[in-house]
Amino acid sequence: MKYQRSSALFTEAQKVIPGGVNSPVRAFKAVGGTPIFVEKAKGAYLYDVDGNKFIDYINSWGPMILGHAHQPVVNAVVEKAQKGTSFGMPTEIETEIADLAVSMVPNIDKIRFVNSGTEACMSAVRLARGFTGKDKIIKFAGCYHGHSDSFLIQAGSGAVTFGTPNSPGVTEGTAKDTLMAVFNDLENVEQVITANKGEIACVILEPVAGNMGCIPPANGFLEGLRKLCDENDILLIFDEVMTGFRLAAGGVQELSGVKADIVTFGKVIGGGLPVGAFAARTEIMDYLAPIGPVYQAGTLSGNPLAMAAGLAMLKELNENHEIFNSINKKTEYLHKGLHEALTSENVKFTINRIGSMISVHFSEKPVIDFTSAAEAASNNYFKKFFHGLLNEGIYIAPSAYETWFICEALSYEDLDATIAACKKVAKTLD
Ligand code: KE4
Predict the structure, then answer these.
(1) 60, 96, 270, 424: which has the highest count of C-beta atoms within 10 A?
(2) What is the atom index within ligand 1 of the atom nearest the CA of 206?
């Protein structure tokens, strides 16, 4: 693979954009090398500016569940754009997609659209604080909810003390209201709640973690969180930015049967355009301005083009639930093939998978939380694996902490090509 033009474009980009990218993970810092500049994409394939073709397992970090440039989505956006791109006034399509999302997802009556997953999670936490009148939140190490200050926190000293900032610019004042817990460890959550009795507004988590690689909840974990929240008057927020409209039409609430109080969305709900959203029962959502006291706003919230893209995608997913079974079967097929390819070369690895989310971890130990995910990522295997696959025309996330995303446009020939590439690369992972 030759990357001359990507390399030249990256040099130019770095002169005027910090790190040459508009989101850090794109810069290949974790895997080394030069980020690839995309020229175009269609279906399961990316075409870079050097004419290289890749089978895409990032799919824009999740939104492209039907494949790139999916014609009904493109048509909807083009048609809408002819009528104007933004008004800052209510439009009918916002109600249409709101009605559809509310009909697809359990336990929500109303939804507010924003412009990113970060904005959705930030707003959901403010709403939980406003609704409960309490300040503290619990988040889990390794779960990512976007770059709002309250989330850029790492575990402080001691298991039940508040967190400390993990980015300059985040204040101790903010950090003191974010408590850190261990994913899949109910006992630890109970300790944190007990040490902060009556002060916690919400627990926020990815109900299936996707930012430590893919880590499903342990049996009983979500049910246990629901029980602890009910016993302590705490709202449970499911961050379904990644899992929403991917793991099922109704997301993890549908899969697990566990009821969240607030659910956040992003990625798929926007069909590839900038959309986030948060939703809850009426009692909670009516706390939002303009009818309630909790302020939240956005110039481009409910943007007609973004709503058109999201509505086209949600309609197709809602009218054809077989898509979820199909991408789940493709993921299972890929899992089996990757497992055989890596086992044949005596590589130490473990694969996590749920629905159409899958991740390869280069450790023999189970990866069940951030500590075990970090341990598995603390070697050079992933870097070699990433670049080896890239050279074979397979584009996976340039970080060991990310999940592969399967899209419906992937054929079984694509999966076989991926498995064959993995087998070839496995030979180099000495
Ligand atoms: P955005 O603000 O990036 O739209 O969404 C933040 C977010 C919230 N919640 C979850 C569960 C998420 O996965 C994300 C964003 N995901 C990352 C990929 N793991 C986005 C990629 C990036 O930062 O460029």
Answers:
(1) 270
(2) 11
Q: Which of 151, 206, 211, 359 is the best mutation target for the ligand 1 pocket, counting ligand atoms within 8 Å of the beta carbon and taking the most?
A: 211
Query: Rounded to the nearest whole angstrom, what is the distance from the C-alpha of residue 75 to the centroid of ligand 1?
Result: 26
As averages over each run of 10 residues, the pLDDT of the chain (430 residues) reads 95 98 95 96 98 97 98 98 98 98 98 98 98 97 96 74 84 94 97 97 98 97 98 98 98 98 98 98 98 98 98 98 98 98 92 98 96 92 96 96 96 98 93
What pTM was computed for the model?
Answer: 0.97
Which atom of ligand 1 is the closest one to the Cα of 274? 4
Question: How far is Cα 105 from Cα 320, in angstroms, rounded to an integer?
Answer: 15
Task: Establish whether residue 117 lines the binding site of ligand 1, counting it when its CB lies within 6 angstroms of any ligand atom.
Answer: yes
387 within 8 A of 3, measured Cβ to Cβ: no
Which sequence positions are flagged as catalytic?
144, 239, 267
Which domains are assigned to the chain? 4-69+324-426 (3.90.1150.10), 71-319 (3.40.640.10)
Q: Are 298 and 88 in contact (CB under 8 A)?
A: no
For residues 418 and 44, give the distance between their C-alpha atoms in angstroms, rounded to a whole number.
Answer: 12
